[in-house]
Amino acid sequence: MKGKLRYFPITAYAIVMGLAGLSIVFAKFHHMQWLPKIFYEIMLFSTLFVFLGISVLYALKAIRHFEEVKIDFNHRIRINFFSAFSISILLLSIAFMSYWPFLSMSFWWIGTIVHTALMLYTVAYWIQNNFEIQFMNPAWFIPIVGNMLIPIAGVEYLPKLFSFFYFGVGFFFWIILFTIFLNRAIFHHQLPQKFVPTLFILIAPPAIGFIAYIRIAQSWDTFAVFLLLISYFFAVLLLVLHKSFKKLEFFISWWAFTFPLMAITIASVVAFQISHQAIFKYLSFFFMAIAVLTISFVAYKTVGKIRQGEICINEE
Predict the structure, then answer these.
(1) Of 26, 51, 57, 261, which is the most buried if we count CB atoms within 10 A?
(2) What is the pLDDT of residue 74?
(3) CA neighbours within 13 Å on the CB side: how many for 215?
């Protein structure tokens, strides 16, 4: 166990992101009276349990193998996954918002403070270090996506101007990073197999941006529709690219499939709530079915890898 703990991956928080996203999906479906509350409650507390378990294991790693944590924190790719920790807290805040408001507010304050610190450190790290273009991959979006999650619950706790600040920072960097990624994808070497599943992260920024904008502005306007349709575009694009995902060896990065699928499912429910157009209801059920199947499959593969002792290994 001690040897395994040394290489416990920070990327494990991507599991919490996927599960928390599914909890929020079930919450929205319960709110719309499309699912019984029990599904939401089971998923909610299961996600909290997984989050606490992963956090305890990584804390033990930090205590016993602090040099490995420092290596993770200064790694050109793994540094981006530290923001998955704060994003997990923010997602738990959203998931608990209607169930336990005080806990939701506590999670939101902790998540916002931690994410702000990690986001600023990560952006400073990008600026202060020289990167070759091949190091760029969709995982770079993770610190930025978190900014647009903050307003979703944040509009309940602070003035809207605060939420607009985080939304604006997230939107600004999403456009810049996507431009860099498109340059890397078209004109340079293909992504390593391990990071091909992270292409699904491309769905998340516009989908979360749409939800955040609706929460702040409460307006079904041109900009809201633009964000929503861009997220659908990326979903269709990934469907066209389905051959790139065939015969991939399983890595924990496969959890990158899950959270963006939850995001676009929630965005579809919100679009139906505010526009009352039936197409969004059908899309909500369609994406939820895909999301549940995907998370079930990835969870099954993860349990298999854990049993084979192939998760906590030296990735270098």
Answers:
(1) 261
(2) 86
(3) 28
Between CA 216 and CA 65 the distance in angstroms is: 42
The mean pLDDT value of the chain amounts to 90
How many whole angstroms separate alpha carbon 160 and alpha carbon 215?
9
d(CA 295, CA 301): 10
Would you state the torsion angle of the CA atoms of residues 235, 240, 241, 245, taken in this order, to the nearest 10 degrees?
80
Q: Tell me how crowded residue 46 is: count the other CB atoms within 10 A of its CB.
A: 13
| Integer Cα distance of 60 and 124 in angstroms | 27
Cα distances (Å, whole numbers) of residue 86 to 44, 74, 81, 186, 207: 17, 17, 10, 31, 19
Domains in the chain, CATH or no CATH each: 2-307 (1.50.10.150)
Q: Compute the C-alpha angle 257/268/154, nearest 5°.
A: 85
Cα–Cα distances (Å) from 97 to 54, 90, 103, 172, in that order, read: 22, 11, 8, 27
- Per DSSP, 189 falls in state P
In angstroms, rounded to a whole number, what is the distance separating the alpha carbons of residues 5 and 138?
A: 27
Total residue length of the chain:
316
Element at 36 (helix H, strand E): none
Percent of the chain at pLDDT > 90 equals 65
What is the spatial distance between Cα 315 and Cα 292, in angstroms, rounded to a whole number?
A: 29
For range 206-224, the mean pLDDT: 96
